[in-house]
Amino acid sequence: MKRIIIIAIISICLFHLGSQAQDTTSGTIFPKGTKTTANFTGTVWVKTLVPIDSTFHCVVGTVTFEPGARSYWHTHNAGQILLVTDGTGYTQEKGKAIRVVHKGDTIICPPNVEHWHGAAPGSSMTHISIIPNADKGVVTWLRPVTDQEYNGPKAN
Questions:
Q1: What is the per-residue pLDDT for 53?
Q2: How many CA atoms lie within 13 A of 152 on its CB side?
Q3: What's the angle, vertex CA 15, arms to CA 14 and CA 19, rounded to 5?
Q4: Helix, strand, or coil here: 3?
């Protein structure tokens, strides 16, 4: 009888610990971070995961865009890699049609190419941003993406 009670107590504790360790309602991997308005249109949260240092020379962060939110046009001296972890979004390089992206997509932003990214109108979108060789500079912010640009033609 003691053995059954002990097993029951251990099972309850393990279940309780497991339910605390994993947030099954949000589906997020990393915390949203800090809400920001600088260089973005709409509601956006940014969380630095790996700050620049003298060993790896990269910056890694997560950005969460509410529906319709987007970055300003910008460039990266050494390029940028985006890993979409949730939702549906848009990205566009200057002079090209908007690319629709989904959870699981990878976006390669070449060095010094003007581009923007954000959430689609009906969905939030979260991505991990990797900026390599950040010792060459992290980002050069340009101007806001207009509603006309945001609603422009989509790539096939």
A1: 87
A2: 18
A3: 115
A4: helix
